[in-house]
Amino acid sequence: MASNPRTRIMYIEHKGEGLTGPARIGRVTFSKSGKSIHYEGKTFESLKGSGFKANYFDVETGEHFWISGCKKDGTDGLYTTAVEIDPDAREEYWTDIRGMPEKKDVASFKGPGKHVGK
User: Fold this and answer.
1) In whole angstroms, what is the distance from residue 98 CA to residue 104 CA?
2) What burial class does residue 42 get, using C-beta atoms within 10 Å of its C-beta: 0-12 exposed, 13-18 middle, 19+ buried?
3) What is the C-alpha separation between 6 and 109, in angstroms, rounded?
């Protein structure tokens, strides 16, 4: 009996060389064991606390990423950055996660980050 893979809409930010990088909101799939995350043909595994401002790495390239669950207030990233939302995640993101159904067609926004100077 085949089971459907477990999916979730998550925040995915490529860290590259700095504290911020290109960010997306998209639907990821978890491996059966739950130890790996799959997104857009890439496989990510936990850095187990060893990353600098990153918590996952691409198993093929070794590049670091910040991947987290989406927050109602939009502070998904660590720092302010532009965020693109995948078309198949937009309605669920804006309606169920953010509670802003009027924005269900909005494809991008400036994420404030949780470490914003006041």
Assistant:
1) 10
2) middle
3) 27
pLDDT in tens, the chain (118 residues): 445 569 999 999 998 777 778 899 999 999 988 889 999 999 999 998 777 778 999 999 999 999 999 999 998 888 888 999 999 999 999 999 999 999 999 999 998 877 765 4
Which structure tokens are listed for 101?
A: 């159904």
Q: Is 85 helix (H, G, I), strand (E, B) or coil?
A: strand
∠ Cα 63 87 94 (to 5°): 100
Q: Residue ranges of the alpha helices (H) in the chain?
A: 90-92
Q: What is the pTM of this model?
A: 0.87
**In residues, how long is the chain?**
118
Contacts of 96 (CB under 8 A, 6+ apart): none
Specify the amino acid at residue 55: N
How far apart, in whole angstroms, are the C-alpha atoms of residue 71 and residue 117?
19
